[in-house]
Design brief:
Layout lengths: L15 E11 L9 H11 L5 E4 L5 E5 L6 H20 L3 E4 L17 H10 L10 E7 L3 H11 L3 H8 L4 E2 L2 E2 L5 H6 L5 E2 L7 H13 L10 E2 L1 E3 L5 E8 L4 H23 L9 H14 L4 E4 L4 E4 H18 L3 H14 L2 H9 L2 H16 L20
Parallel strand pairs: 8-9
Antiparallel strand pairs: 1-3, 1-4, 1-5, 2-3, 5-11, 6-7, 10-11, 12-13
Helix pairs in contact: 1-2, 2-8, 4-8, 5-9, 8-10, 8-11, 12-13
């Protein structure tokens, strides 16, 4: 996400940006293809907008990063633009752009991308990096002051499992449904520094948590944390890293809208003097695991009350909690429609599972169908509307 805003302009809880990671796959086999350098070179050459295109850990991965936006319409336009440019650059080389948390079809080994940092990460984590082609959607919300941003993180932690459940899009690996709505999260649990961030009393306290992991030798640098939300190491933002990459632009916008509403609600609570208490680490881990296991199609865990519940109840509580913030940014109607569409049609995890029932041929067809869903020329940012509304209430 680029950072250009007018000097002195307030950004806390207002500005928003998104980073989307995609897999490059062969058009015929749907297997990952290690051609990211060529695709990125083409995308950068053809695009002069605020969108930025980056390499990721493996040479089969590419990222589109929006600029700083102030509303969902602007953000949606930039998301669509980045997807269109990458789709076209991939097609030039006989590839497709796949929006999935992990590769759904096996292929030849893919090398790590070039660069000292990627090499250091690969060496440090050794066998854990084998085929770790995980792709996520990261949402940045502007919060300039480090101490305020740290306090916001404490407020966000209880809601991260719910955001994850709404995004799950990686149940299939090697052509088989593995019984996990988000294999990407299952992969990340193997790494140190994963999960809900530790509660921190201040920016300095937060920095001590990060530095301790670096000093212990389990993180390469401060940008390496696998926490599902963190203070960005290079931007004045809170960065939510909980979501799988999603197929449809409106699914990404839903994550962005709810993330910003959660940050704005946290800022309101802090202004009233309400600090968030810590989440029990074991219960927090249980809530994340349950969301990754079942997505929207099973139980949930309330990490604050430390008890089992349903994902329907968690989504209802989330929308009620952030209702005033959604109204402030005129996002209420969009969120209602998007949540209804997910309730009716399911997340990408459900769609992948349906395709997997038809074997490899079905999965390859599903990847082919993704191109139309990703391509900005055919993919709407508005969710389909049908069924009862999940209404955010104040």
């Amino acid at each position: 996400m680029t950072t250009s805003t007018a000097a002195g302009e307030p950004t806390d809880g207002v500005t928003i940006g998104v980073e989307e990671e995609f897999l490059l796959v062969d058009a015929d086999t749907a297997a990952p293809a290690a051609l990211a350098p060529a695709v990125l070179a083409s995308a950068r050459q053809s695009d002069l907008s605020t969108t930025r295109f980056h390499s990721e850990l493996f040479a089969s991965q590419v990222e589109a990063s929006t600029g700083v936006c102030r509303d969902l319409a602007e953000l949606g336009a930039q998301i669509r633009h980045g997807r269109e440019v990458l789709t076209a650059a991939a097609a030039e080389r006989g590839l497709r752009l796949a929006a999935t948390g992990v590769p759904i079809v096996d292929g030849p080994p893919v090398p790590v991308s070039e660069g000292e940092r990627f090499a250091a990460i690969s060496t440090r984590f050794s066998a854990l990096m084998a085929d770790y082609q995980a792709s996520g959607c990261h949402v940045h919300i502007g919060v300039a002051d480090p101490d305020t941003a740290t306090a916001v993180l404490n407020h966000l932690s209880p809601w991260l499992p719910t955001l994850l459940a709404l995004s799950t899009n990686s149940p299939v690996r090697g052509g088989r449904d593995r019984g996990q709505a988000s294999l990407r999260i299952a992969d990340q649990t193997r790494f140190p520094g994963f999960g809900l961030p530790p509660w921190a009393a201040s920016a300095a306290d937060y920095d001590r948590h990060v530095d301790r992991l670096i000093d212990c030798g389990v993180l390469v640098d401060e940008r390496m944390s696998f926490w599902l939300v963190r203070r960005s190491a290079h931007l004045p933002t809170v960065e939510l890293r909980v979501a799988d990459t999603m197929v449809r632009p409106w699914e990404t916008l839903l994550q962005a809208a709810l993330s910003r509403a959660l940050v704005r609600t946290a800022l309101t609570e802090l202004a009233l003097g309400h600090e968030a208490g810590p989440v029990d680490p074991q219960v927090g881990a249980a809530a994340v695991w349950t969301a990754a296991r079942f997505g929207l199609d099973g139980p949930a865990v309330d990490p604050v009350r430390a008890r089992p519940t349903t994902i329907t109840d968690r989504v209802t509580e989330l929308t009620r909690w952030v209702g005033p913030a959604l109204a402030q940014t005129s996002d209420t109607d969009f969120v209602r429609a998007a949540l209804t569409a997910l309730a009716d049609h399911g997340t990408g995890a459900r769609r992948q599972r349906e395709a997997a029932r038809h074997g490899i041929a079905g999965l390859r067809s599903a990847v082919t169908a993704q191109v139309d869903a990703i391509d900005a020329r055919t993919a709407p940012c508005d969710p389909p509307t049908s069924g009862p509304l999940a209404t955010p209430t104040k």
